[in-house]
Every structure is written in C-alpha cells, then in structure tokens.
C-alpha cells in the first residue's frame, strides 16, 4: 500500500515541486541554499562563528553585549534564504506539516543541551493571536521535537498575559521593554523545582521573548534553562 501511495503521490521537496528521495525532505538545490548552522557556534544563541570548534564555549558579539538569562542556546538555521521561507510557511501559511522535518533539524542542533533531560516548553502566543492563527507554531515545533527525542512537553506551561505590539522594526531596547512582565507561568500549571527546561521557539532576533520566558521559568523555580530555535536572525556586519 505504501509503495502504491508513493507511486501515486511521489515525495516532493518541502520548498519546491521537485521530486525527492524521502518524504518531507529537500531537493539538492533547496538543500544547498538552506543555511544550516554547524561547526563553531555561539553557546548562547547558536549563530555561526569563524574558527574551529575546540570544545570551549564561545559567544557572539550580540550575546556579549546583551545579558542572557538562560544557560545555553542553539539554533538549527540562519534566518535567511530558504530558512525564512520555511519559517513563514509554518507560521503564516498553515503548513503545519513542516514541524516534523524541522524537529529532525532541531534535534541535531539540541544535542549539547539534553543533559540533564529537559522538559520541552514552547514560547507562548497570546490568546487573541492564537485565535486568529489557530495554532502556536512554537508549540508545534516543541511537540514534534518531543516525539523525535522522546522527551516530555508542556505546551501550555507559559502564558503571554499581555498582547504586545508587533516587535518587527523596533529597536533592541523597545523589544525588551515591551516584553517586560508579559510572560508568566500558567496559573493552573506547576513546574518541578530545579528541573531542567528547554525553551523552544521558531526564530530568535533580539532574544527579548526568550529572555522574558526564561525569567518566568526562573521565577517558577526552574533550574537549568536552555533555548532552542529553528532559526537565528543575525544582522550582516
């Protein structure tokens, strides 16, 4: 039956209509333009850095300038070219099936962050935006990653209690100010005291949303908090 289905509906690239060998994969051309992050990366946000990975934590200029309340961080992709297409399709075009292949990439990026085994927690979406979009893309990623790695997921542990104005185009300081006290622990949820948490989001830009989420987790008693994003937005030098 599976062979018959493959003959009728052959596997296609996630980004274009080219045929692919595996389901939910990328064709060679799209793979080549997908900016995966590997090698030497910032230990706090995952952005690529020049040099060779010698096993010593290093930090990018952005993370040296801005205090990060979390312990470590990684990202699967740099937010440009094909990565931007993937994120926007997942976020705004109802392409929820993209969470599954994204979880494979996230799983590889998350390898240094999995000891001790963490609870996966998505960055929350305000309820009014959730009604409009019908799903939280970060929760979809966290749930798919949980299945991929066999880790527990708390999809509604955090809530965004304030609907902040759009962050796009705002300065670094404005982003952090808008998100101050905007995220908190769900009033009917509890977090294990001192437990390890892996925060999951689609894109990190300034880090303001991840910082607000981390602070809410710390206030609720979390121990080690790491962050994982599908993509990391980085300004060109």
From TrEMBL:
Pfam families: DZR_2 (PF18912), Pribosyltran (PF00156)
Protein name: Competence protein F
Protein family according to the UniProt entry: Belongs to the ComF/GntX family.
Source species: Oceanicola granulosus (strain ATCC BAA-861 / DSM 15982 / KCTC 12143 / HTCC2516)
Superkingdom of source: Bacteria
InterPro entries documented for this protein: ComF/GntX_DNA_util-trans (IPR051910), DZR_2 (IPR044005), PRTase-like (IPR029057), PRTase_dom (IPR000836)
Signal peptide start and end residues: none
Positions of the Double zinc ribbon domain: 4-64
CDD domains found in the cross-reference section: PRTases_typeI (cd06223)
């Amino acid at each position: 039956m599976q062979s018959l289905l493959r003959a009728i509906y052959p596997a296609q690239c996630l980004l274009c209509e080219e045929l692919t060998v595996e389901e939910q994969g990328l064709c060679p051309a799209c793979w080549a333009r997908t900016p995966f992050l590997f090698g030497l990366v910032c230990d706090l946000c995952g952005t690529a850095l020049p040099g060779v990975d010698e096993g010593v934590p290093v930090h990018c200029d952005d993370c040296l300038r801005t205090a990060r309340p979390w312990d470590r961080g990684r990202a699967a992709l740099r937010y440009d070219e094909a990565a931007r297409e993937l994120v926007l399709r997942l976020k705004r075009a109802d392409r929820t099936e993209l969470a599954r292949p994204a979880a494979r990439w996230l799983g590889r990026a998350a390898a240094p962050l999995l000891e001790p085994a963490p609870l996966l927690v998505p960055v929350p979406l305000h309820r009014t935006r959730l009604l409009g979009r019908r799903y939280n893309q970060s929760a979809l990623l966290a749930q798919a990653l949980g299945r991929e790695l066999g880790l527990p997921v708390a999809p509604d542990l955090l809530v965004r209690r304030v609907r902040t104005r759009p962050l796009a185009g705002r300065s670094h300081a404005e982003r952090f100010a808008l998100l101050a006290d905007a995220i908190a622990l769900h009033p009917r949820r509890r977090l294990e005291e001192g437990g390890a948490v892996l925060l999951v989001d689609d894109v990190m830009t300034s880090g303001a949303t991840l910082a607000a989420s981390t602070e809410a987790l710390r206030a609720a008693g979390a121990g080690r908090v790491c962050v994982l994003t599908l993509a990391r937005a980085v300004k060109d030098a």
